[in-house]
Structure formats: structure tokens, C-alpha cells
Specification:
mainly alpha
Length: about 90
């Protein structure tokens, strides 16, 4: 079962995503680093002010490992259809 998630509401940018964004906005690497630091300080101050700390988003590996596999049900006669058991007479 595959659930479609709204990526815009569940995706929280990682440091790599943000650094790539800030580097695309400026040619100076140190300025991009400073913008990244300012972003995380603003996030932290918001968390302190509201008391809400967002959980980290799951990685692709975590999502893959969490997929449900039903190991309790075993198919009997999986390769035999009901019509194949009948005799011609």
C-alpha cells in the first residue's frame, strides 16, 4: 500500500538543501554559510518562543525499513486455480 503524501507539507529542508539554496543566491561561500547559520538561529529562537520542536523528517532508509510486510498469512494452493482441479469427465 503506497500512500501519496503532500511533499510540500511534510518536507522539512535539510542543511544540504538550504546550503545549496543559499549558494545559488550568492557567489560568496562565506555569505551562504552565514545565511544558513542565521536560518537555523531563527528556527531555534522560534522553537524557544513557541515551545514547539518539530521532529526530524524520516530518511528514505527509514521509510523503506518501516514498510509493512505481512508474514502471518501463507497462501495455500497459490499456483492452482479452481478450474485446474476439475477432471475432464
Amino acid at each position: 500500500m503506497n500512500h501519496n503524501q503532500n511533499q510540500s507539507s511534510t518536507h522539512r529542508p535539510t542543511s544540504d538543501d538550504l546550503l545549496e539554496l543559499f549558494e545559488s543566491q550568492t557567489n560568496d561561500w562565506t555569505e551562504a554559510q552565514q545565511q544558513l547559520e542565521d536560518y537555523w538561529m531563527a528556527e531555534y529562537s522560534e522553537q524557544l518562543a513557541t515551545g514547539l520542536i518539530r521532529p526530524n523528517p524520516p530518511t528514505k532508509e527509514m521509510i523503506k525499513r518501516a514498510q509493512f510486510v505481512d508474514k502471518t498469512y501463507h497462501w495455500k494452493n497459490a499456483g492452482i486455480r479452481p478450474g485446474e482441479q476439475r477432471t475432464s469427465k
